[in-house]
Amino acid sequence: MIKPLLFTYLAMAIVVIVMDFRHLKQAAAINRWLSYSLIVLGTGIWFYITHLSKTLFVSVWISHVIQRLLPLP
After folding, report:
1. Angstrom distance (rounded) from CA 41 to CA 56
2. Closest CA to 61 of 52, 16, 12
3. What's the per-residue H, E or C state across the chain?
């Protein structure tokens, strides 16, 4: 059920990337690197989720990463 939605998301993301490629190329270098890194991170998370046999919630995964970076009271 969720995999068709993820494939739809990926198709829409590819369309947006192709449409905005000219704009990213004209942006400042730091903005290009941030945009490309977010795209790669999102694609990596997408591949990780679609190739698992169990359900993984991205918000839980991100919370584990953030908990290591931020001090808790």
Report:
1. 16
2. 52
3. CHHHHHHHHHHHHHHHHHHHHHHHHHCCHHHHHHHHHHHHHHHHHHHHHHCCCCCCCHHHHHHHHHHHHCCCC
What is the C-alpha to C-alpha distance for residues 40 and 73, in angstroms, rounded to an integer? 33
Task: Give helix then strand counts, H and E, for the chain.
Answer: 3, 0
**Tens digits of residue pLDDT in 27-68:** 787 877 888 888 788 777 777 777 666 666 777 778 888 888
**Span between the terminal Cα atoms of the chain, in Å:** 39
